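Thread: "does anyone have the structure for this chain?"

Original post by V.I.:
We have the sequence but no experimental structure in hand. Need at least a predicted one for the grant figures.
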Amino acid sequence: MPKNENVFSSATAAATAWRRRATTRLVHRGWRWVQNAGAVTAARPGPLRFGRIGEGTRLAFPLGTVFGERWIQLGDHCIIGEQVTLTAGMMPDLDLGPDPVLRLGNGVVLGRGSHVVASVPVVFGDNVYCGPYVYVTSDNHSYDDTTTPVGKQWPRTAPVTIGAGSWLGSGCVILPGARLGRNVVVAAGAVVRGEVPDFAVVAGAPARIVRRWEPGTGWQPPLRTPAPLPVPEGVTPEQLLALAELDDPA
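Reply from O.Q.:
Generated one for you, C-alpha cells below.
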C-alpha cells in the first residue's frame, strides 16, 4: 500500500509541475502578444496623435505618460523603450502654439523608464542614445517664495539641446538650459547644466568635463584602453557569435 501511495503522489506532483510550466508559457506568450499589439508606430498610432512619428519608429508597450503629442515630433527609426514619459506642456490640454516643443532626430534611442518633459523647446539631434532612467527637462522648480510650497510655485524654464551622436548614461539628469554639443558622453548619474562642448565627457553632480578631444593631440587625458577594432565588412552576426564562442575560455 505505501508503494501505491508513492506512485500516486509522484504522478500528482508531475501533473502539477506540468500545469505550472504550461501556465507560465501561456502567460509569457500572451504578454509578448500584448506588447506587440500595444506598441505605437506610424502605421499603428493607437489613440496618440503625434505632430510627427517617423518611419521605423516604435514606442514599446507599456508606455509611460504621454500628452501634448501635437507638439511632439519623432524622427525616423527611433526606439522608445517601455515606460518612457514624453510630455509637451506641464499638463494635458494646453495650447502651446504653432511650433513643435519636443523634437527627436532620426535614430534616437530612449532607454526604459526615461522621462523627457518639455514646455519650451527640447531638441535631440540624430543618433542620440540614452540609457535607462534618463531625465531630460526644460522645467525646474523655483523656491523664491518661502511662504508657498515649492510644488505650487511657477517653474523656471529654458530650452535644451542635445547634440547629434551623444550618449546619455543611465540615470543622468539634463537640466533646463543645458546645451550639449556633438558626440558628448554623459556619465551615469551625472547632473548636467549649462554648455558642454563637442567631443567631451562629463561626470558628477554638478557635471564637469573629465575628458575632451583636442585637435592635434586627441583625447586629453589619454584614453586608458585601446580603441576597439571595427567589424570587417561582410561579416555576418552568425560569424561574430562563432568567434565569441572560440574566445570563450569555458
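V.I.: this helps a lot. Residues 1-38 form one domain.
O.Q.: and The longest strand covers residues 208-214.
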